[in-house]
Every structure is written in C-alpha cells, then in structure tokens.
From TrEMBL, chains A, B:
Gene3D superfamilies: 1.10.1370.30. Its EC number is 3.4.17.19. It comes from Pallidibacillus pasinlerensis. Belongs to the peptidase M32 family. This is Metal-dependent carboxypeptidase.
C-alpha cells in the first residue's frame, strides 16, 4: 500500500515535471518575442505558443491529472505523501478546478475575446476613445462574472478574483487596509502641499548614453546579489522579469538617455523580482511551487529593492560616485542631499507607472474601488470615465484631459486581469512590514546600504521569504516573518517619517 | 471517398504542424544555449530538451503517424492528395522507418553513447590521446554498422549513411567525382608550389574592434539580401545558422579582433545558409519540407557566398573601402590586388576548418575514404591515426605532430555523424556548377559584384534553388538548374583559372 502511494507520488511528480518543461519552452518563447525576435517570425511564433499552451491546458485538465489528484488528495493517502507532493497536488487541484468548471467553448471564446480586446484597447488608448473599447470591456466583465458564478465565491464575488493573484486575500481585509493607506497618504499630501520646500530637479534630465546606463545597472544588480550566472540582462520596451528555469531568472531593462532613473530603478525593481526567483529552494525544481507565492509577495521584493533600498539616502552615499562615473558632469555640483530630494520629489500625476512613491498607492486604490464596484453591480461600464476622473480629482487633485491618460491607460482590464491591481499596493504594504521586521535583525540597515553590503539584506529575505517558493501562502510568509498580519501602519509611518524630513513639516 | 481523403490530408498536416511546433521550441532552446543562456540554467534546460525531444520522437513514430502514412501513401489514395501532402508523407515515412527499424533499447543506448563519446572526445582531443577515444569510436562505428543492417542498403553499406545527409548520393557517384577533384587539386597544388609568386599577408593580422567587425558584417549581410526582419545576428563560440520558423532564420558570428577574415567570411557563409532558409516558399510552412533539401545543397549556398562571392576580386572592388572604414589604417597602403592575393593565399595545412579554398576538398576526401573503408571493413579503428597521417602526407604534404591536430580534430565522428563529411565537398562542387549556370543568365556576374548588386544573384538562387525547400531532391535541383548531373569539372576549372592568375603559372 505505501509502496503504491510512493509510486503514485513519483509518477505524479514526473507528470508535473513534464508540464513545467513545456512552460520553460513557452517562457523562453515569450522572452525571445520581447527581446528581439524578428518581426516576420512573430505570426508563426504565436501559432506555436498557442499550440504548446493548449498542450499544457490538456495536461493540466486531463483524466490522468484528475486520477492523480483524486488519489493523492484522498484523506487516507494524504499523510503518506511528501509535503512537496501534497502542496504540488493542491496547487494543481486549484488550476484543475478553475479550468474544468468553465465550459470549454466559453473558455475558448474568452481567449479570443482577450486577444481582440487587447488590440482594440491599444487603438482606443491611442485615440482616447473609450466608446471604442467599451463593448469589449463590457463583454470581458460579463464573462468574468459568469466565471465567478462557475467557480463559486464566499461573501463577495470579487474575492474569487482577488484569490487568483493573492491567495487568501478578501474585500474585507482590503477595505480596511486600503482605507488606512488612503487616509494616511491624503493627510501626508496635504502636509507636503503646505510645505514651502521646493525640490530642485533641474539636473536630472541630462543625456547619459545607453551603454553607460547599462553598465551602471549591472554594477548595482551585482551589489544587490543578482547572480549573472543564473540570469541575464537584456533590453525591452517594457522592463520585466521572467523565469526560464531555476538557474535562469532573466530580467530586462529600458533605457531613456534623458532620464537615468528609468534604468536605475527599473533594474532594481526587476532585480528584486529576480532575487526571489533565484533563491527559491532547489528542492522545488520541476514543480509549480518553484516560484513566487503570490503577485503581492513578489511585488514586495521588487518594491523593497526599488524603494526601500533604491530611494534611501544611504544607498546613494555608497552609489552617488558610481552614478557620477557613468554620467556626464551634471551631478558634479549637486550635493548628495539635493540629489536625494530630487529622486524623491512628490508630485500627484495622472499616470500610474510614472507616479512617485507617495501617490502610487492612491492610483491602485482607485482601480480597486472601481473593480469591486463593477463586480458587485454598483458601477456600470458606461459611467467608468466619469467615475475615474472624479476619483482622481478627489484623491490626487488632478484630472485627465482625455481617457487616454485616464481610464484607458492600463492594459490589465483589456487582458481580463481583474483582481490584479491590488497586488501592487499589497506588495508595497508587505515591503514596509518586512522592512520593520528586518530592522530587528539588522538594526544597522542604513549602514549596510551605505557600505554597499546589500548581500546581508538579501540573505534575510532568502531565509524569510525566497526559499519557500509556494510552499507557504502569502499571509503565512508575512505572519512568520513579521509576527503579524497585514497592517498598513508601517507603510504610513515610513512615508510620514521620510517626507517629514524631505519636505520639512 | 474523396472527402474522406481530404479530411485525412488535413488531419495529417495538422499533426505534422504540431511536430514542427515542438521543433520550433527546441530550436529556440538550442539557439539560446549557444548565444548566452546562463550556465546555471543549462542542466535544467538539457532535461527539458530531452523531454520535448522524446515527445517529438513519440509523435514521429506513433500509431497515429503510421495510420496516416499507410493511408496517404496507399496506391489508390496517392493521386488524390496534394503534392505537398504527398512529399510531406514521404519525408515522414523516411524518418518513421529509420526510427522504427531500430529496437528502442538500442536506440536509447546509442543516444547515451553519443553524449558520452562527445565529452570523452573533447578531453581526448585536448590531450591528443587517441586511445582514450578509441573504444567509444569502435562502439559508435559498430552500432552504426548494425543500424545499417536494420535499415538495409543497396550495393554499399556506406550508401545508407550518405543518403541520410544527401538523399540519392552513392559511393559510385562520389568515387568518380572525388577522384576528379583530387587529381585536379593535386595537379594545381604542384603548379602553385613551383610558382615564384609569394603572397604578402603581413597586413592581415591587425587589431579591428569587435563592434566594428560586427557593423561590417551587418553591412555585408544587407548587401547579400539577408532580411534582418526575418532573422537576427548574434555572437557564439562557433558560428552557425538556425531556423526558428519561416520568418526567423538566425545566424551567429565569431569575432577575432586580430583577424577580420573570421567574421567577414563567417558572416557570408552563415548568411548564405540563411538566404536559403528565408526564401523557401511560404506554402511549405509548418511541414518538414520548409528547409534546405540536403546538407550538400545547403552548403552550396553558404560556400557560394563565402567563396564565389566573398573571395572574388570584384566583390572587394565594391567593399574594400567599406572594410577600410571599419579597420584602422592597416590597409591604407595596400593596393586592392595585394589584398585580394592575401585573402586567397594557398597553404596546405593540418586543420580542415582553417583550410584555404584550394586544399579544403582534400581534407574532405581523406575523411570520405576513411569512412568508406570503415563501413566496408577495410580499415580497423586501431589503424586510424596512421592511415590519417599517411593520407595527409600524400595529399597535402603535411603531417600532424599529434592526433589532436590529426584524426581527433573534428567532432563529427564523436557524435556519430558518419556520412556527413562528403556534403562539405559536394556543396563546393554544386556551388561551382551553379556559378557556371548562373553565368548564362547573368553574364555580368562580376559587374554585379563590383556594383554591390548581390540581390540579382540572390534572386537567381531564389528561383532555382531556395523556393523548393525539400519539394525537390538535391540531384533534381542540380539537374534543373544546370542541365546536368554532378560534375567536378566546373570546380576544377574555377580553381585552375583563378589560381593561374594569382600564382602566375
């Protein structure tokens, strides 16, 4: 009996390994498409991606998979299998249920809709024409509502969507923490507005050649502990991190020769994601557990590096000379303090991805409130532009001239990713909580930054977060690393303290 | 009935398309491994390649495949299917038979042997220790002999191996043309040796930065008509061309900063392969017919560009200034004629891949004679080093100091590729025949080169060779393009005429 179960576990893990092999091939194809695949090969490539993806779908929903899951997750067997096999089975079961509950023709129609909607969105954004995109968005939301009915939900329909990206996250939890974040930031913004301090940023936008920015990015990534023997850095239109396999976590960067901040903070952001992926326990290789546990925890790693390290004055005590080495003479007469103020200027704006670290969460909260309203039938799609603009006016004091810089700015809804946005703000909140816990173990955090000893910080995250992959749920990781649940206080405290100094209120 | 056959044809072509989708993924993974994949990802990658390759093997030898082939190739159905479906089925049938006739355990043992043999060979070459490699080579030859028995053969066992790389090629044909080539070249070498002309190459080996060589390679590739929207150029240890899909024929190059010839002629060689792949008819997409028809015809395209274009004085009339633009001042005082002599210096040497265009075929003929002897039980493995050295002495007048620069220099035998070498010389012979035929349509060939109008030449090959992919057999292509069969005379005439001028005999 035990022998049979062990054989079953081995067969199951081999089956799962085959699925991850396909995913490695698919990820390499995505990476290649976005880093220089020639354009005439794109059409053929898309067909191949479609074909191999459908093979993955078949394996994930096959009778063979169902058989493994039924047996391994049977109460009498569960205790006889390894923890890795059990958690792998639970993860596969979640995907299996999600996919099997949707009628196959509805699923295929949805995939087609997504593709079409993304291309319509691109044009609509360009033309600032919401009405052009509206029927697609209506169909996307309607389909996702039907899917939620198929999948089932507890308390709030939107919870089911949140759970896709952040397992265990609910509207109840988010309403609370997002209220705290919003109140804290609105209060802080008022203080900043009243301040007389004006930040000089005149020296930022000067020309630095791409090659220099790349060399600088590489030096900073090495300092962070990014392992170039287990990854590579390339250029792409939008920076991203992608994991090909456990020894190959790639990142890309974008270079604006008139604004070094894009490359420096982009590298630190994607590098943060990659540190997570590079340091998952090797025991999890070949299973779906060998990656970040949720979008939110993943984002905590990128934001920790980008913001809590990269926008800290001590980091620049170490690295300002390095920047000067690769820049022209634009910084030669700029004292470190002024440089530090400049890279932390607060300025409420319309575009999420260009937001400063204070106003960024407000962009997310607006999207969260709208998504929640849509899935609880409190908001109609036709009213979206007006609601969007009102909320920007209320929270940020700015109003879009047109929908291209308003409700149409992000691709997420066009690709059907409802429930994704909150992870950006969650990552930020998690990161502040981790920072607080880390300070207990490494009270010399600021000195480590000033000395370039970022490896010490990486080691802390390796132990508390990275190694577990998906073996622990997001809130489990948070609880064990910090001793408490989700709490927005640390983020607000961090922002208040930092900006009190910068804006001297 | 007809409807059924048409449905069968569609199903079969979809099945084949799925196989080519896997091959696209595999080719991208190979390309990636050789152009910069991080080393810690290599082990995982190898497993994934093994896994997806075995899926391809399963599909190519499946009962489903057998069913399609039996029905489509049935006499009563053959005439009702399209020519593409028929030739695809014949191509699949050839692979099917080759794989199915070998017992699966022998096949697997052979794959393991190949991998092991390649790594032993690498060390043996390094240490110049033939005895270390000998047992593996014995096993490789013995296994291939057994395979030939399984596959069957006509007249000569070696014919079956030749047919893998050059369909339709036989020992009878090769014995004749290779004798002509050998006699012609040996005669030519004697004349060159007697000549008083000494070629000055002192200005060749000066430093040219890699970036300059790359820019120069790109300009030359564009002139050749290589479509950068349907391919890309990267760097690798050994240059190669690989086709990802019909709109994506990639090439790599190698840069020696002390010898620009490596990059320039390497780019033209790989570019020639790529021109073939980029210009196969789009009707063949998704079938195994969408590629070069044989190793020999493929090599004719690379060698035509590298040698018949790249080492022609008229090509340099157009491009010598371009080279000077990217070089330092090393050529400023060198007249074009002297430059032309230098890049065509003849010097018998030990290493095949470093050979000049006159002696190159002799390196191939030596290998051909040895392979033929091995598979006809006329040569024993233990005698190989002695036989090798004797032949080099006899044909080229040089003798290896050790086996590392002798019998161990090539990887081909270690990877079991017996029958492959002749395609290098065949490609050269084909290329000379194509040149002769092309001159009838484009008598102004030299002027086109001098004016940089290489597109005209490309168009000729598009029409006569490229478009057909594997729809025509190598000797069919040759016959239709040149009006005759394999004939070594054109190569010998070309060499005699060219070197009579250079060495003034």
């Amino acid at each position: 009996m035990t022998t049979n179960i062990q054989q079953l576990e081995t067969d199951f893990l081999n089956y799962v390994k085959k699925i991850t092999a396909y995913e490695e091939a698919l990820n390499l194809m995505y990476w290649d498409l976005r880093t220089g695949a020639p354009k005439k090969g794109v059409e053929g490539r898309s067909e191949v991606i479609g074909l191999l993806s459908s093979e993955v779908f078949k394996m994930e929903t096959s009778e063979e998979m169902e058989g493994y899951l039924n047996q391994l997750l049977d109460e009498k067997n569960k205790e006889h299998i390894s923890e890795i096999a059990l958690k792998t089975a639970l993860d596969c079961k979640k995907s299996f249920d999600r996919m099997k509950k949707i009628p196959i023709d509805e699923y295929q129609a949805y995939v087609t809709l997504q593709t079409k909607a993304e291309s319509v969105w691109e044009e609509a954004k360009e033309k600032a024409d919401f009405d052009m995109f509206r029927p697609y968005l209506e169909e996307l939301v309607a389909t996702n509502k039907r899917f939620v009915e198929y999948w089932g939900y507890e308390e709030n329909k939107y919870n089911t969507l949140l759970d896709i990206y952040e397992p265990g996250m609910t509207v109840d939890i988010l309403d609370n923490v997002f209220r705290d974040v919003r109140d804290g930031i609105v209060d802080l913004l008022q203080k900043i507005e009243k301040s007389d301090r004006r930040v000089d940023t005149s020296f930022i936008n000067e020309h630095i050649p791409k090659a220099n920015q790349e060399a600088l990015s590489i030096e900073i990534l090495k300092q962070m502990g990014y392992d170039f023997d287990a990854g590579r850095l390339d250029e792409s239109v939008h920076p991203f991190q992608i994991t090909i396999n456990q020894g190959d976590a790639r990142i890309t960067n974008k270079y604006d020769e008139q604004d070094f901040r894009i490359a420096v903070f982009g590298a630190m952001h994607e590098g943060g994601h990659a540190l997570y992926e590079q340091n998952v326990s090797k025991d999890l290789a070949g299973t779906p557990l060998a990656g970040g546990t949720s979008m939110g925890i993943h984002e905590s790693q990128s934001l920790f590096n980008e913001i809590f390290v990269g926008r800290n004055k001590n980091f620049w005590k170490k690295n300002y000379d390095l920047l000067k080495k690769y820049a022209n003479d634009q910084f030669d007469k700029v004292p470190l303090d002024d440089f530090y103020y400049a890279i932390n200027e607060v300025r409420p704006s319309l575009i999420r991805i260009e937001a400063d670290e204070v106003t960024y969460p407000l962009h997310i909260i607006i999207r969260y409130e709208i998504e929640k309203g849509l899935f609880n039938d409190e908001i109609e799609i036709k009213d979206l532009p007006a609601i969007w603009n009102e909320k920007y006016k209320e929270y940020l004091g700015v109003e879009p001239d047109h929908d291209g810089v308003g409700v149409l700015q992000d691709v997420h809804w066009a690709s059907g990713a409802f429930g994704y946005f909150p992870s950006y703000a969650l990552g930020y909140i998690y990161a502040a909580q981790f920072k607080n816990a880390l300070l207990k173990d490494l009270p010399n955090f600021d000195e480590l930054l000033a000395e370039g000893k970022l490896e010490e910080i990486k080691k802390w995250f390796n132990e508390k977060v990275h190694q577990y992959g998906k073996m622990k749920k997001p809130l489990e990781i948070l609880q064990e690393a910090t001793g408490e649940g989700l709490n927005a206080r640390y983020l607000i405290d961090y922002l208040q303290e930092k900006y009190r100094d910068i804006y001297q209120f």
